[in-house]
Amino acid sequence: MGRVAKTGGFQEYAIAPDRHAALIPKGTSVEEAAAIPLVTFTAYYGMFHKTALGLNMFEKDNKKNEAILIMGGSSNVGKSSSTTE
């Protein structure tokens, strides 16, 4: 059996709380399922983190009328960015 660690991303096995896990949809490979959080969090970080664009996702009545142009919208990160609300 491989190494099991409580922290670190380069382990063969990892221990995580169940709230940090999700079921893999039917018809989705393990590799595809592993990529979903990567592109989603990359899009989220680029749009909402204060050191990136810093858009405010929590304002329901956005008085600034902020808009962004997503270049490369056919990429996985671009698709995820265009569907992130």
Give an overview of the whole structure:
- Helix content is 32%, strand content 5%.
- With 85 residues, the protein is mainly α.
- A two-stranded parallel ribbon has the order 1-2.
- The N and C termini lie far apart (42 Å).
- The mean pLDDT is 76.
Q: Structural class, from secondary structure content? A: mainly alpha
Helix % is 25-40%
Shape: elongated
Sheet of most strands: 2 strands, parallel
Mean pLDDT: 76
Count of helical stretches:
2
Order of secondary-structure elements: EEHH
Overview features:
85 residues; mainly alpha; 32% helix; elongated
Summarize this entry quickly.
By secondary structure, the chain is mostly helical.
Secondary structure: elements and pairs:
Elements (H helix, E strand, L loop, with lengths): L3 E2 L7 E2 L15 H19 L27 H8 L2
Parallel strand pairs: 1-2
